[in-house]
Structure formats: structure tokens, C-alpha cells
Amino acid sequence: MRPQERQAAMLVHDTTATGRSQAEVDQIRQSLRSRYDELTAEYDQAVMQSQVLRLVEVGDTAGDDQADSGTKTAERDTAQSLLRTILERRAQFEHALTRLDEGTYGFCEGCTAPIPVERLEIFPSATSCVACKQTRERRAA
Description:
The protein is built from six helices and no strands. The chain is mainly α.
């Protein structure tokens, strides 16, 4: 499908084309927004824990041997990794909300086919159907 055809097909996917009522769209929006807010709170808490960890590190370095330094570095790396993961997941939900507003939520970004409801129930921020996701993963491997 050419880009213009794909764009036109995506624009057709309004609430009547998706088979979703406005109440269903509102329920999906509320669910996505709720998860986004949970991730925001989780991120804020992780930032505070990371700051406490840094303060403890700064005030407690006297007498550290290599093992202590290594442990602190590993803890700091783990905290940073957690922050990145939360931000990435939050961005996925933000993208899902944007797609819902545009009328493209629930359709594969790769082939524009509807994403099965079961997949969206398990992974609400999914942007691709199973076939496109598997193809992308095979190419990456």
C-alpha cells in the first residue's frame, strides 16, 4: 500500500469504521490515561529513590573498597535503567492516546489491519498486529 493510500485508509477509521461506540472510545481513553498516570507516579517515585540513593552514595564513600564501589555502581545503573524503562512505557501509552484521538488506535501501523481486541486487552499500547510484530522481530534478530 502506498503512503497516500495508507493515510487515506487510516483517516477512514473513525468510531463507526472501528465499530466502537463513543462510550467504548471513552472507556479506552480512560484506561490508557489511568495507566499513563500510574506510570507517571511510578516514575516520580523512582526518581525520588534514585536521588536518595545518590545522596547516600555521596555521604557514605569513606572506606569503600572495590566491591562497595562496584555494588553502588550496579545499584545506580539499575535505578537508571528502571527510569528509562518507565519513561519508555509511559511514552507508549502517550502514543496510544494520540492514536486514539486521531482515530488510528487499534490498527496496525505497519499494514493498517485491525489489531485483535485480545492483543489490545493484554497490551493496550500495541501499535502492530502479531504478524507485523513477528516480522519486525525476525528482522532484528
